[in-house]
Specification:
By secondary structure, the chain is mainly β. Helices cover about 10% and strands about 55% of the residues. The chain has helices spanning about 1-25, 155-160, 160-165, and strands spanning about 30-40, 45-55, 60-70, 75-80, 85-90, 95-110, 120-135, 135-140, 150, 165-170, 180-195, 200-220, 225-240. The longest helix is centred in the N-terminal third of the chain and has 22 residues, at about 1-25.
């Protein structure tokens, strides 16, 4: 009887230990960065940075910082008749967006050790700051000659005679210091597919739906309809490390 009791106790201890190991998370924290592309952005929409902590083996939470550029759906590039350089006809402002979100992730399919694919369901919510930044163009100086100057696009002066007077676009981020800050909120739901053969790092793709809502209409192109709401489908290629 004593031997049987000892065997039963040893079995229970081993079983409890195995259960505890299964409930322990594979990693306690992770730092991920990525390049994102959305249906309302350019070829490269921006950058994203994520820091997560483990709540359990299948739940993680943390913060996400996104730095992105949002475009108007009617933006199109045209060529200057004077130089052949391109610019966006009718564009008055850029919209640079800074998102800071609380992130929650649920592992719905866990990959096998050192191989396979892991699938996470993601939701995030938080504040965002829109930077309404003037779009600069290059024009000839009023004094004539070959001298030029860069000025914010004014549709009342430049729209009708754009291709005959505009030489091209200004420098990128030129009007950033003149931006108007417009607060808002952002929400996202997505699915992430994680790959990689090493436990200490991760690479994968995240895709989903995101919406940014601002406290007022953002004037990107004054010659057409603008909005305070910017929904989009997006995809992010990401890489990171885990401990």
């Amino acid at each position: 009887m004593r031997l049987t009791a000892i065997i039963v106790c040893m079995f229970l201890l081993v079983h409890q230990s195995d259960a505890q190991r299964r409930n322990e998370p594979d990693y306690n924290r992770e730092f991920i960065w990525g390049i994102t592309k959305a249906t309302n952005s350019g070829l490269i929409g921006g950058l994203t940075f994520k820091y997560n902590l483990a709540l359990s083996d299948f739940q993680y939470h943390g913060l996400v910082l996104d730095l992105v550029n949002i475009k108007h759906p009617q933006e199109s590039r045209v060529f200057s008749n004077l130089t052949g350089n391109t610019f966006i006809l009718g564009k008055a402002n850029y919209l640079y967006n800074i998102r800071l979100s609380y992130n929650r992730e649920l592992v719905i399919f866990k990959k096998a050790p050192q191989q396979g694919v892991q699938i996470n369901l993601i939701g995030s919510l938080g504040p965002t700051l829109g930077l309404e930044s003037p779009y600069y163009i290059e024009i000839q100086s009023e004094a004539g000659g070959r001298s030029t100057r860069k000025v914010p696009f004014d549709y009342r002066r430049h729209f009708n005679n754009s291709q005959s007077s505009i030489l091209g676009a200004g420098n990128i981020f030129q009007g950033l210091g003149e931006s108007q800050v417009v607060p808002g909120a952002t929400a996202k739901i997505a699915v992430a597919f994680e790959f990689g053969t090493f436990k200490s790092n991760v690479v994968g793709i995240e895709t989903g739906f995101i919406i940014d809502a601002f406290t007022r209409e953002i004037i990107i192109m004054p010659t057409t309809q603008n909005s305070a709401f910017f929904p989009a489908v997006y995809a992010t290629l990401f890489y990171g490390s885990r401990k």
